[in-house]
Amino acid sequence: MTFSFVQITDHHLGETESQLMKGYSTAHAVRKVLRHIAENVGERIDFLITTGDQVNDASEVSYSNFCQMFQLQAVSAAPGPALVTLEGLQAFPMYFLPGNHDDRELFFRYLFADTPSMPLMNVSFQHKGVQFICLDFGAGDDAVAYPETLDYLERSLQAGFPSVILTHHHMVPMGNRWQDDYFLDKEKSEIFWNIATQYQAQILGVLSGHVHTTYEKVKRGIPVFGLRSTAPQVVFLDEPFFCLQPLHYRLVTVQDGILTTRIFEVPL
């Protein structure tokens, strides 16, 4: 079975579309990316996934703005799909993960009102025989490999389906101090990889956000992918330094048990 989907990530929207983040219009950037998706790949993808940080400063007003902007219609339990309509996408299915900037209670109240709020959104969904495992490492700046998250990963993989793991936080080092220090629980992050290694043959890939940077790595034989945000991007220095780069989204195709990806670049 063959299908494709698109990953976007880290939108950091404000309380209004005109609100800026470090002088940068995150709403304009999201609209540019979604317009490009609609015009170039919309007819050949089954759904969208966003890997977290829907808003920058979590508030009821921010989430209300987010839902209005996306004309979001929740038609299933979290993580979706919900239906979104904007920039040429009409009632298009989209899955949502929370990030470290997302308040879990508000995330559920506004995006998935019929789903009881969870402190950690460890959930999964299936599409054409592939299991998508959504793992939550918390709402703080520092990722935490909670025992319940690791247990959920192992239980999900034990089901035996070919699987894609979705996370907000990055699961491999980036090579700079301020980003890699986010995952302080090094011992438990190794437990994640020990579990994943046991099921390496059925894991098609790991897709993450958080670091606002596009990368492709392999760890213990498992492909690991990160993605440039639709918010300001960062460069690899030991202190936070934001810059303006073309926006990215990732087209992912699963065919005959193999996951391949292509990056699309969108000018601001």
UniProtKB/TrEMBL annotation:
Domain Calcineurin-like phosphoesterase: 4-213
SUPFAM superfamilies: Metallo-dependent phosphatases
Sequence intervals crossing the membrane: none
Protein name: 3',5'-cyclic adenosine monophosphate phosphodiesterase CpdA
Organism per entry: Ktedonobacter robiniae
